[in-house]
From TrEMBL:
One of its GO terms (biological process) is iron ion transport. SUPFAM superfamilies: Porins. The keyword Transcription does not apply. The keyword DNA-binding does not apply. This is TonB-dependent receptor. Belongs to the TonB-dependent receptor family. Residues 49-156 form the TonB-dependent receptor plug domain. InterPro entries: Beta-barrel_TonB, Beta-barrel_TonB_sf, EF_Hand_1_Ca_BS, Plug_dom, TonB-dep_rcpt-like. It comes from Sphingopyxis macrogoltabida (Sphingomonas macrogoltabidus).
Length: 991
């Protein structure tokens, strides 16, 4: 028996019957997508849906239209154990069975591999656009590596574009208008060129107003303005040879926001910024930030700088203290208008030749991706009147009131950031590559104190893959493949810009250069920039499977893969790191004083860049046994091992003790399943149960405004039920249910960014006034809260009196000057979820005193935890892993002569999950339901249609994910949501 029809994937097609544009083949119009013989290539062969043992869901183009699956985010509303959310740095996480892109950074591999026509995509913006002119989408759940070129631990999403049809001219066009003044158009034309060549061109355009109202500027933001075009050419020079070429381009430029909202339980002390019990619509405490700390009178006093230059006090009112946060998730107050730009060019080529007993497929692709996005960093408008005293002093110094010697140092600072005087506009550095910012004329000026971030990335990649498959008579067949991929990132930066940063880099730079007899200078860079200037990834894999048909019912599959990954990165992080003379040319790094900057403290000497490289290799594989009870009933059991390479953590500023690199991720996955069809397709029922054992699962958290990754072991198990009921040809009901359990299985101690005291009542959480980082102080004797509090108060008194740091017998330059006015420890609010007390202080000084005199306050000494007191996360659930999901859809086809009227309603419920590995109520993501409906009228032979639709009928503000920001930014929480209610009408024709 020929084996090609047996070595494929068994797929439950969660698809629907009424197409927007039906296919022409009679068999497909008679047997539609629900219960019909949908053909897929999830295992690199064209196969019938219910024949091979892998949990996969497939959506035809007709299904995508009917179920209103317009974007990748919509896929989660139908698929079991699948979630999708945007993430903090312009990325997204497609999570399958609890595993998504929990690793954040340029050197992270994706847990879910995204493929286009079978070829892997790198840093793709494919999911930015809406779907158009597709043949189908296949989502494979579980580790994939012995069939797909790019290894993945959670699964694969394979987007398959519609191919040109030989000898047939056809075209289609569709227009849509909806609320938010949304206009969308899609079109396709298929042109035959002789008998063996055909060209297909398709495109989409979308323009709509913003979902979000900005009450401060009375504007709408979060709009979309994009287009995408795709051209495909197919040539069949012989009956056995097919050549496909494809080129696509996507571009978006608008005011879309990456982050929907910031939530916080406000901390009145300013030591944390936000508390640890719940997420409120409240502003964080601005005194907890880097900018507040370094422009405070407390910090300036320690440097011997007059308090009159301070923009405020850490114990006084903060800039957000009297502001309010709108409760509506789609209403914000911001003085900064976001901008979003992305583009992607993709070129693909594939040749396939059938030699008879074997077939060879060779494919290759090239990608070029650009991304640049910016928005308000704090999503709020602060009270600039609090800055009046400091700004007035700066202007006075620039005007010569403090003497001509200082005037030369402060005049260029005032000219750059307050050119119209202290009551005029405030100028903030643009996020730009030179590193000069406002002091080089690269600035934006406003009546308000602006703060914003920028995330940008430019990368290119190419890959080539070859797959040889057999089609032999007899029980044995095979598949052998190999892939080589080359990825090159030339720019990836994350910037944080704020007027107070310009102020502190100007003022501190002026005093520093004056005190050391240097030319007038500012501190570069006058903004935070974490930059990866170069990243090269070279990867190859060799993979294959063998298939042995024991008899007509029993089959054995064995697969093996070898992975080899090499990564080399050049990176650095800067913020007020070295003096730069005014008038410097080139870049800030051409400064003669850059020699004091060290981008790589782990290597002897001072380096302008951190250079790291890593190599990983691993063997993985899978084994499957499946048994066909009947042609419509299948049982299977499988084991597979998945692998994802490790990477390199970026440099930090200030320096914290974090792993320099993170290890590869590995999973052993066990799965059993049953695929069934009854009553000639009237009932379709697929059942899957799985158990995953993860080693070194990659997780990320924010440290010093930077994503840092670590590893942890975890177990995952669950089950999935997918069903379709068709009581008669005009009714279709589809159902889905999944259960998921995740748990950290190792003793893993790490600090919780929401509670640096680790839940200990005898600890003191410190806000370091020199960098706004948090550390914690704890006694060596458990429960001795009096000792730890007395120790902090003693050290703060010493700081207030001044400390001879350089040991020359006097308190002067280089020492901690007197007059800081630091106060003693204080309690957090009773409902804040923080058991510790807190204080402003200096962590480095606390460390020195703990070593010298800690035993005076506790017989077992005093400990200072520079990154907070670690807590054990063993037993915690993984983030973005809801325990339950449920979906249901019902559709009826009413026949009106040659026309049909098709109403459809879909319901999806996603259960509760956590947005952080630390769990707790403050990190809880509430369950949510989404309901969609549409009514479509199809013309005779489906040559035209008209429909009305509504998405998110109840306008639920469904949160899909959250991210906790850095301690020096206020510890607030960014949330990401699904789209609001959308409704409109659409019409299309086909000829």
């Amino acid at each position: 028996m020929k084996f090609k029809a047996l070595i494929g994937t068994s797929i439950l097609a969660m698809t629907v019957a009424t197409p927007a544009f039906a296919q022409d083949a009679p068999a497909e119009t008679e047997r539609d997508a629900f219960g019909g013989e949908i053909v897929v290539t999830a295992q690199r062969q064209s196969e019938r849906l219910q024949d091979v043992p892998i949990a996969v869901s497939a959506f035809s183009s007709e299904a995508l239209e009917a179920q209103q699956i317009k974007t990748p985010s919509d896929l989660q509303l139908t698929l079991p154990n699948v979630t999708f959310t945007k993430t903090n740095f312009t990325g997204a996480s497609f999570t399958i069975r609890g595993i998504g892109d929990l690793c954040v950074g340029t050197t992270c591999d994706s847990a879910t591999a995204i493929h286009l026509n079978g070829d892997p995509l790198f840093s793709t913006r494919l999911f930015e656009t809406e779907f158009f002119d597709l043949e189908r989408i296949e989502v494979l759940r579980g580790p994939q590596g012995t069939l797909f070129g790019r290894n993945a631990t959670s699964g694969v999403v394979n987007v398959i574009t519609a191919k040109p049809k030989l000898g047939l001219f056809e075209a289609a066009a569709e227009g849509e208008y909806g609320n938010y003044d949304s206009i969308k158009g899609k079109a396709m034309v298929n042109i035959p060129i002789g008998d063996t060549i055909a060209l297909r061109v398709a495109g989409i355009y979308l323009n709509r107003d913003g979902y979000t109202k900005n009450t401060f500027l009375n504007t709408r933001i979060d709009d979309r303005d994009l287009y995408s075009v795709r051209g495909s050419l197919r040539w069949e020079p012989t009956d056995n040879t097919t050549i496909d070429l494809m080129g696509s381009y996507f571009r978006e430029k608008d005011q879309r926001t990456r982050i929907q909202k910031q939530l916080c339980q406000r901390d009145p002390t300013g030591i944390l910024g936000c508390l640890n019990t719940r997420l409120d619509n409240s502003p964080f405490n601005g005194n907890s930030t880097f900018t507040a700390a370094l422009t405070s009178r407390e910090f300036l006093a320690t440097q011997g700088i007059p308090a009159a230059f301070a923009l405020g006090s850490l114990y006084g009112p903060d800039v957000y203290g009297n502001t309010t946060i709108p409760a509506d998730p789609r209403t914000v107050n911001t003085a900064y208008t976001p901008n979003y730009f992305t583009s992607e060019l993709t070129l693909q080529g594939q040749i396939e030749h059938d030699f008879g007993p074997v077939s060879l497929q060779v494919s290759g692709q090239y990608q070029k991706v650009k991304l640049d996005a910016s928005q308000d960093y704090n999503s709020n408008v602060g009270d600039r009147s609090l800055y009046a005293g400091g700004l007035g002093t700066l202007q006075a110094a620039a005007s010569g009131a403090l003497g001509p010697a200082l005037q030369a140092y402060f005049a260029p600072v005032a000219a750059a950031i307050i050119p119209d005087g202290p009551a005029g506009q405030l100028c903030t550095s643009l996020a730009e590559e030179s590193g000069f910012g406002s002091f080089g004329g690269n600035k934006i000026c406003s009546d308000q104190s602006l703060q914003f971030d920028r995330s940008n990335q430019y990368n290119s990649s190419w890959s080539v893959e070859s797959i040889l498959t057999s089609d032999l008579d007899g029980p044995f067949n095979f598949l052998i493949g190999g892939i080589y991929a080359d990825y090159h990132l030339t720019e990836n930066s994350y910037y944080v810009n704020a007027f107070p940063i310009d102020y502190l880099t100007g003022v501190l730079g002026a005093f520093n250069s004056f005190a050391n007899g240097l030319p007038p200078s500012f501190l570069g860079t006058p903004f935070f920039r974490n930059n990866t200037g170069d990243l090269k990834i070279k990867s190859y894999g060799i993979f294959g499977e063998t298939y042995f048909e024991v008899n007509d019912k029993l089959k054995l599959t064995l697969g093996l893969r070898y992975n080899n990954d090499k990564k080399a990165v050049v990176a650095r992080s800067t913020l007020a790191s070295f003096l730069v003379p005014f008038g410097q040319t080139g870049t800030a790094f051409d400064s003669p004083f850059v020699v004091t900057f060290d981008a790589d403290p782990g290597t002897p000497g001072n380096q302008l860049e951190q250079r790291r490289s890593v190599k990983f290799n691993e063997w993985t594989g899978r084994a499957v046994v499946d048994y066909k009870i009947t042609d419509d009933n299948l049982l299977y059991a499988s084991y597979s091992r998945g692998y994802k390479s490790g990477g390199i953590n970026p440099p930090l500023q200030p320096i914290f003790e974090v792993p320099e690199s993170f290890q590869p991720e590995q999973v052993d996955a066990f799965e059993i399943g049953s695929k069934n069809a009854f009553g000639d397709g009237a009932l379709q029922l697929n059942l899957t149960a799985f158990y995953y054992k993860y080693k070194k699962l990659q997780l990320s958290k924010i440290v010093a405004r930077t994503a840092v990754n670590d590893n942890v072991d975890a177990d995952i198990y669950g089950f999935e039920i997918e069903g379709m009921v068709r009581p008669d040809p005009d009714w279709v009901i589809n159902l889905g249910f999944s259960y998921l359990h995740t748990k950290v299985t190792e003793d893993k101690f790490t600090s919780n960014p929401r509670d640096f005291g680790g839940g200990r009542s005898d600890a003191v959480i410190i806000k370091d006034i020199t960098n706004a980082a948090n550390c914690a102080v704890a006694p060596g004797t458990s429960g001795n809260a009096a000792g730890s509090n007395a120790f902090v108060n003693f050290v703060n008194n010493a700081i207030n009196a001044g400390i001879d740091v350089n040991g020359d017998g006097t308190i002067g330059a280089g020492d901690i000057r007197p007059g800081a006015g630091l106060q003693g420890t204080t309690s957090f609010p009773a409902d804040g979820g923080i058991a510790s007390t807190g204080a402003f202080s200096i962590c480095g000084v606390l460390q020195s005193y703990a070593a010298a005199a800690g035993n005076l306050f506790d017989p077992n000494g005093i400990q200072v935890f520079t990154a907070g007191i670690p807590v054990n996360i063993k037993g915690n659930e993984l983030p973005q892993a809801p325990n339950y999901k449920f979906s249901a859809g019902v559709q009826y086809t009413a026949h009106l002569g040659d026309m049909t009227l098709v109403p459809r309603v879909d319901l999806a419920y996603t259960g509760e999950s956590y947005g952080s590995i630390f769990n707790g109520n403050v990190n809880r993501i509430k369950g949510y339901a989404q309901v969609n409906a549409q009514l479509q009228l199809n013309g005779a032979d489906d040559k035209w249609f008209v429909k009305g639709f509504i998405q998110n009928i109840f306008n639920a503000n469904s949160v899909t994910g959250l991210y906790i920001t850095d301690q020096s930014s206020g510890n607030y929480t960014n949330i990401f949501t699904l789209e609001p209610r959308r409704y409109g009408i659409a019409a299309g024709v086909r000829f």
